[in-house]
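Render this sequence as a predicted structure.
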Amino acid sequence: MNGTYASSSIHMAGLKIMVELRGRLHNFGHSQMLQRILTWTDFAYCTTWNEKPIFPLLPHLSGTSAQFPSHLLSPLPKILQMGLLYLPHIQPRVFEILHSLHQISSAITWSLNQKEAATQLERKQISMAVYTTEYALLLLRSSEEDTAITELVHNVFNLSNVLLLAAHLYLHLAIRELPGTAKMHLNMLNQLYRAIPDNLSVAVLLWDNSSLEVVIWVLFIGAAAADGHACRKFFVQKLREVIVVLEVLNRVEFEETLRGVLWLNRFCKTHCFQVWAEMGI
């Protein structure tokens, strides 16, 4: 998946043909490990090149956070609770993905805070929810591509688009704990970088606080994903501009703002300290 789009597409087309000759993906039920490898190959390709998944969603590997036992769940942040009432310009399906990511993050946090390891069932439920959520993310991101390009040409800031990109980076870096140097992450990071207008502080000047808080979270994820890359400075600078508009006064308030959207302590805490220090507020 680290080659060109053309070579990657040829390899995926060949893989699809081989899988179909064996009776399609569900026919590999004798080996869930092989199914997972094929599914992840599909996900990696689609993430890198912003394509729809080639293979169908497998029911026996899929699940939602709605199936989590109550001890794995936590209340939704106010922004996610109110959803379209607070942020009517964000697609409803984007909120569904954010809901899932919040509950997955809560479940992981709960499992990490226990003296005993999570049970096999709990780990399986989390894994199934991650799989289903990423599948939905890939479908939605690929359907947004034409709109995003059109709006970029007309210099319109599409909050749904950048939120999807940041949510996908969050899923990979915070939840899956994948290395940020992978090509698929660099591609997403570059897309996010290009989608943020240079005049961001002017573009959001009249926005409500909830929208500004979402923008701050998006820029924070961009800065965290850009650790070690040249565009890190861009995200930190834009973050500083929006924080001034929202009048976030200190690191504690900064962390509270981030927690109001999505937060996973093992990933966000360190980056929160580092990014705040770099902003020099």
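Summary. The longest helix spans residues 120-153. Residues 134 and 168 are 8 Å apart (CA to CA).
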